[in-house]
Amino acid sequence: MDILLENSPLLLKGLVSTITLSISCLLLSVVAGTIIGVLRTTRNVIVLNLAKLYINLFRGLPILVTLFMTFFLLPEFNIELNPYFSAMAGLSVWCSANIAEAVRGAIQSIPPTQTEASLSLGLKPLQTMRYVILPQAVRRMLPSIISLLANMVHATSLSVLIGNMELLKTAQLIIERIEVMQGIPVALMFYFVILLMYFVICYPLSLLSKRMEKAYS
């Protein structure tokens, strides 16, 4: 227990890194995903197919492959990112594709009469989307976004494979240092603490997502 208390500041630092990365990725993904989701409902065939390709590609790829793409391929184009920002880029691409699909579904769930009424009142298509359709769609896609935040917290643990110092990587370094230097087996204790941390973050988000889904359905 003393060992755990001594290393708790490092664990908390890793936890803060995980939460910061998750929220940053979600915010970027909401902006990008909303734009792509709106484009997914357009009548322009070229734009529609490009948006569809983006969504299907990055939803279909394993998250780890997307992380490796941003970490190993971007430097080939003279784009140098440290592990943290590489993880942010890769996770944001994956999450934005999922949010785009949620936005598309939410928009298409709005009755067409809403659009027809807005256009008949003189609103332009962009104004109709901004002031009439999207405000209603937001309520319907919020449960999906909250659920994605919980998934994002889980997914950040994969960034350890590209060297990002998040919660899992921090714990691994602490375990290696203690077991090598002091010869004390502490892996089980630290991994159990990490499990509790993930549970405390993700379980309330899952409950909130289900509650919002019932409330807005």
Count of discrete structural domains: 1
What characteristic shape results from the CA principal axes?
elongated
Please estimate the helix content.
over 70%
> What is the CATH class name?
Mainly Alpha
Q: What's the order of the H and E elements?
A: HHHHHHHH
Question: Approximately what portion of the residues adopt beta-strand conformation?
Answer: under 5%
E-strand count:
0
Question: What's the pLDDT, averaged over the residues?
Answer: 88
In the CATH classification, which architecture applies? Orthogonal Bundle
Radius of gyration: 21 Å
Structural class assignment: mainly alpha
CATH topology (fold) name: MetI-like fold
Report how far the terminal alpha carbons are from each other.
Answer: 46 Å
CATH homologous superfamily classification: MetI-like
Separate helix tally? 8
The largest pleated sheet is described as: none
User: Which spans of ≥5 residues are poorly predicted at pLDDT below 50?
Assistant: none
Written account of the structure:
- With 217 residues, the chain is mainly alpha-helical.
- The protein has 8 helices and no strands.
- The protein is 82% helix and 0% strand.
- Helix 3 (63-73) crosses helix 4, helix 4 crosses helix 6 (125-155) and helix 6 (125-155) runs antiparallel to helix 8 (187-216).
- The mean pLDDT is 88.
Notable traits:
single chain; 217 residues; 0% strand; elongated; MetI-like fold
Describe the structure in brief.
82% of the residues lie in helices and 0% in strands. The chain is built from eight helices and no strands.
